[in-house]
Amino acid sequence: LAKRRSALTALHRQLREGTVQKLYVVLVKGRWRDDKRSVKLPLHKYVLASGERRVAVKGNGSPAHTVFRLQRNWKGYSLLEAELKTGRTHQIRVHLAHLGFPVAGDDKYGDYALNKQLARQGLKHMFLHARKVVIAHPQSGETVALEAPLPGELQSFLSVLDAEEARVAARGIQY
Q1: Which tens digit of pLDDT belongs to each residue from 43-56?
Q2: What average pLDDT does the segment 159-169 reach?
Q3: Which of 37, 95, 138, 152 could form a disulfide with 7 if both were Cys (CB 3.0 to 4.6 A apart)?
Q4: CB 156 within 8 Å of CB 122
Q5: Beta strands 43-47; 77-84: pairing state
Q6: Using CB atoms within 10 A of its CB, is residue 149 exposed (0-12), middle (13-18) or buried (19+)?
Q7: CA nearest to 101, candidates 117, 82, 122
Q8: Sign of the CA dihedral with 132 first, then 133, 134, and 137 last
Q9: What average pLDDT does range 80-93 have in this prediction?
């Protein structure tokens, strides 16, 4: 985001101070029930014997806070908006997996059998998308909102879910 060192340090300061708003779109396995849920679970980093870095919910971990808002439900899936209040490694993925709602396509914390099935349906990557970031302009202080549309592959997968829902509705089946 920054072309100059001064702008970069100003953005880093905003991140440290928690004044940057970060919004993500995430598809999870399961039927999310709450319109809005604030999740505060501490996260602990560790390294496997293989050298792979992992994160888990653990009492002595660093504080982590995510706010989830339900966008839409399908049979077996829910689309959520995730707002990071803190910025810990793999925070969204670990919070959701811990709650029993693994991110679709997540090969580290997700449901591996489901991921194979999703790949056959066209979802070959994790369904977690950084949708919007809101910062204060480093020079003017003016609020700047930067948005990124959902990538084609993710949008196409939502269309697959919509089509399946339409097929089920046409048969008169409710879920």
Answers
A1: 999 999 999 999 99
A2: 90
A3: 138
A4: yes
A5: unpaired
A6: exposed
A7: 82
A8: negative
A9: 96
- How many Cβ atoms from other residues are within 10 Å of residue 98's Cβ? 15
State yes or no: pLDDT of 175 exceeds 60: no
Whole-number pLDDT of residue 95 = 98
The predicted model gives 149-154 an average pLDDT of 96
Question: Could you identify the residue written with the tokens 């509705």?
Answer: 169
CA 1 – CA 162 distance, rounded (Å): 35
Which residues, in sequence order, are bridge partners of residue 67? 38, 83
CB of 104 closer than 8 Å to CB of 83: no
Q: Give the mean pLDDT of 108-133.
A: 95
Alpha-carbon distance of 37 to 165, in angstroms, equals: 25
